[in-house]
Amino acid sequence: MLLFVVFPVVRAQTTNGSDVNVNRLAEAVDAIDQGQLPQAEGLLNAVLTALPRDPDALNLMGVVRAKQGRPAEAERLFRHALAALPSHLGAHINLGELLLTTNRPEQAMQILLSAHKLAPERPEINLNLATLYADKGNYQQAREYLRLVPRTALTDDYFLVMLRSAIGLKRLDELPELAREFQAANSGNPDAQAEFAMLLAKAGFNDAALNILTARQNATSFPILYALGVVSAAAKQYHKAEEHLTAALALKPSDVATLRALARVARATGNFEKALSHLVQARRVARDSPAVLYDFGVTALQMGLLLDALPVFERLHRDYPREPAYLYGLAAAYWTKGETIETTRLLNTYVTLQPRDPAGFYLLGAALLRQQRISEAQAALQRSNSLKADPDTEYLIGVCFDKAGNRTAAIDAFRRVVQSSPNHAAAHAALGAAYREAGNYAEARLELERAIELDPNDLRANYQLGLVYAKLGEKEAAQKRFDRADALRSRQHDQERVILKLVEPPQN
Questions:
Q1: DSSP 506
Q2: CB 36 within 8 A of CB 17
Q3: Is the per-residue pLDDT at 491 higher than 80?
Q4: For residues 497 and 320, what is the distance between their CA atoms, to the nearest angstrom?
Q5: Domain 363-489: which CATH class?
Q6: Which of 214-228, 303-317, 451-465 shows the lowest per-residue confidence on average (mean pLDDT)?
Q7: For the chain, domain boundaries
Q8: Residue 250 in contact with residue 282, Cβ under 8 Å?
Q9: What pLDDT, on a 0 to 100 scale, did the predictor assign at position 187?
Q10: Burial, 326: exposed, middle or buried (Cβ in 10 Å; 0-12, 13-18, 19+)?
């Protein structure tokens, strides 16, 4: 963000108000505007030699130092200007912006609130205050300051903060009109277009986002290509997403965000090898990036590469022990390793940190179930299902009922799963087994045959169907199922079907 330059005025409080110094200040303003910083510095030094506490000269010298990349000196000069003249508006604005650019939002807010009292109509002050309040999540207060910005002073930043505030307040009905206004007023800045479009897409307005990105003739710029890739992926147009992101990567071959986005697209289409290849490249560029490490760990875990995934999540959890996503990733890795006790310990911490996340309670329930802690498992799974109804969770609840000997409740649970998710092979197998135990062989046969149709490698379904066929007198068919079950048993363990539900990564 550029620092503002406030044109100096003749000041009654100046002890030596010579025309020479006023002229030098005016010439310094022109020199700064033209980028002639050495000339401006010479003029301002001449004024400060005569008037060391001149607030305008101190303020303008602060602007020079800021533009020279010397923020500490700039801050000192702005503060000296305010000490000399506490009502100096330019020094307030410039110090506020300097504090913003050096990532000191709380200090910036105090300075800008003081500036607002001096000039409540200044659009840059109101916009900066709105941005700060939006950054704190106080979207209503942000909108109050945005309302003070006149229509003639609307900028790309105004629309971006307004969009963030509308999304934060869940006033999504305002987004289409806001998108149209932005599109009409946008200066053609591709960075602003890209940021606005990606925010729209995150709120679910993919078509409006794509309209903004394709409205102007700058589709070959990196920000637009990257945003087109991200938005296309959000719209599940993965082929287009990969095409745009690949083009973006050609412009910036080492861009980590683009490599991560390409990996997400590859992962979404099931091409884990390609995803891992992109992430290996990203790790060469940003070896210690937590975001890259997390993506790498998730992909390796989904590929079953436990020896690659586990050290990554152990490192992330060691470095960021209170970050929920890393904690969950480590728990998922231990689950994959078969260490259910450690999985349970980690997930108990996770659900304390994230009590509204169904994924945590789901995996906790699965880990407890595998330890035969049935009542605790059922409680965790029912908590997960109450937060978000899910067929995989309902299936494990049915397994809990079955293991507890409550066959009626188990059958009801499995029925609900196959009704809501007809291709849930494990639920069909479990329902078929429950029907067989209840003596309902006709229904058992239908469910078990459907389970094998969906998953021919389901050990339990093959064995249970063999029992049903034997009971129905179909000995040859029964033996075929038993042989198949024996072949499968030599290659796998008879464990309940659990789907890892990886959580969202930290926003960084």
A1: P
A2: no
A3: no
A4: 31
A5: mainly alpha
A6: 214-228
A7: 1-119, 120-253, 363-489
A8: no
A9: 74
A10: buried
| Angstrom distance (rounded) from CA 506 to CA 457 | 37
Residue 74 predicted with pLDDT over 90: yes
Rounded to 5°, angle at Cα 283 from 279 and 333 = 65
- The answer to whether 225 touches 248, Cβ cutoff 8 Å, is yes
Nearest-angstrom CA–CA distance, 321 and 306 = 20
- Number of alpha helices (DSSP H) and beta strands (DSSP E) in the chain: 28, 0
d(CA 280, CA 260): 10
Distances (CA, A) of 265 to 250, 306, 377, 402: 17, 22, 34, 39
Where helices occur in 186-289 by DSSP H, the ranges are: 190-202, 206-214, 222-234, 238-251, 256-268, 272-285
| Beta carbons of 48 and 61 less than 8 angstroms apart | yes
At 441, the amino acid letter reads: Y
Do the domains at 1-119 and 363-489 have one common CATH topology? Answer: yes
Q: Which amino acid does the sequence have at 412? A: D
Q: What's the chain's average pLDDT?
A: 91
Instruction: Give, in words, the CATH class of 120-253.
Output: mainly alpha
pTM of the model: 0.80
Compute and round to an integer the Cα radius of gyration of the chain: 32
The answer to which of 17-31, 87-101, 115-129, 410-424 has the lowest mean pLDDT is 17-31
Compute CA distances 25 → 20, 21, 76, 236, 433, whole Å: 9, 6, 19, 58, 90
- Range 181-214 burial, b when 16+ CB lie within 10 A, else e: ebbeebeebbebbbbbbbbbbebebbebbbebbe
E strands in 353-492: none
Residue 372: Cβ-neighbour burial (10 angstroms; 0-12, 13-18, 19+): exposed
- Give 324-351 pLDDT, tens digit per residue: 999 999 999 999 999 999 999 999 999 9
Distances (CA, A) of 93 to 82, 89, 272: 11, 6, 50
pLDDT of amino acid 215: 78
Cα separation, 369 vs 206, whole angstroms:
41
Report the topology of domain 1-119. Answer: 1.25.40
